Structures are given as structure tokens and as C-alpha cells.
Amino acid sequence: MLQSLYTLPLHFPVDFIARDCAHGLEALRSAALDGETPTPVPPKFPDEKYPLFVTWNTRSSRPGRAPRLRGCIGNFEAMPLREGLAEYALISAFRDSRFNKIEEWELESLECDISLLTNFEDASSYLDWTVGVHGVYISFPYPTSTLDSSAPSPLSSSVSVPTRSTFKRTLTATYLPFVAQEQGWDKTETIDSAIRKAGWNGRITEDLRRSIKLRRYQTAMCAATWEEYVQWRKDNGGKI
Length: 240
What we know:
Elements: H1 2-7, H2 14-32, E1 49-58, E2 68-80, H3 81-94, E3 110-122, E4 135-143, E5 167-175, H4 177-183, H5 187-198, H6 206-210, E6 213-225, H7 226-235
Antiparallel strand pairs: 1-2, 1-3, 3-6, 4-5, 4-6
Helix pairs in contact: 2-3, 2-7
């Protein structure tokens, strides 16, 4: 089952919500309460290796409101699933520099999303991916001078590109597949936002976009709310 998830763009079946995402909430609950929790339910899923991201969202108390991002960090290096899930559940909860640390009082409003990264491919240009299907990982040399914005599109036949002497250190950023779709971005808007996320605050030109090396990927995802976590513990003989 897990091997098929690693090689195909599938979503987790219902039972994986309990076996994977609930363990993320289990790890966070234990850390938030300094370990003063009932005995953890041991993992039952195979300990295969995957690159993964753990995302925490705060659910709104108002019906119809979308969840609000509370933390999201992951790793592009494949690691054992049990170790990676427990580790990144805490890293994304406590060490995402965009947010304050998640506190105990927030637990019951949280949703844990887990993304296993699959199907990595080198793109032919910064536009060679599909919104809502692919995540994007970009890397590009830090520009040391303003680049010419008159360069043609990456879909043209031009071979004009910035030279190595124009750049220094490399900047990187990623967006998971659902981000562009949720934000309503097209491909160029997504790439421009990723460029900013990577740390470039200067002018974004066509030459800069064309200097990007883009890796596209897909994800297998699951999610669990606090209520699903509580039910999962009960179903597995655990106390709350």
C-alpha cells in the first residue's frame, strides 16, 4: 500500500487518516503536555522511507470559513515514516519562524495534514507544471545585478540566459500542490511568490524566472482533526 502511494498520485484511504495523521496529533499532544499524556498508541503502519511535510491548520469556529495555516515544514530527503512523522509534527508546530509555537490550548482546534512527496521530475521551464497537480521546488542563483526584463518567454526559441558571472549563492523555495490552487494563483504568480519566499526582494524579471531550475512533484495526502484523533485513540484502546 505505502509503496503504491510513493509512486502514484493517490490520496490516502480512510484508514490512513488514523494510522498516520492521528500519530501527528499524538506527538504534538505529548510534547505540548510535556509527556503527561496517556500511553501512546504504537504505530502499526510499515516504516518505509519517504520525503514528507507536516502541515498544521487551525479550523475556524465559523461555518464555511477555511482553515488557517498554523505551521508547515518538511523534508525532501526520504526518511523512515515513523521517525519523520513524529519529528516533523513537532518541528512544524514549534519551529516554523512565521508563527508562534503551538500551545496546549490550541490542540482541539487543530487539523494535521501529512503530505508524502512522490513522482519527482525535472521541469523543462518554470511553466512546465500543472496547478493543482504538482508541487514546485525552485532553485536559482542569487542575482547580483538587475536582470534584463525584455527576455522572451521560456516557451520561445531564444537561448539568451544570464551568465554565471551575474550570480552568487543559490536561493530555494517550495510550494505543495494545493497552495497555488487555494490562493487562486496562476503559474507565473506562483513562481513569483516562490521567488519572494526564497528570499529575493529585488525586481522579478523574465530573465530571473528563466534562470530557475524547477523540480515538480506530486503528493499523497491525509488529514485528521482533533475529533478524529480522539476517536482513533478510542478505537485502538487508548485513553484520552
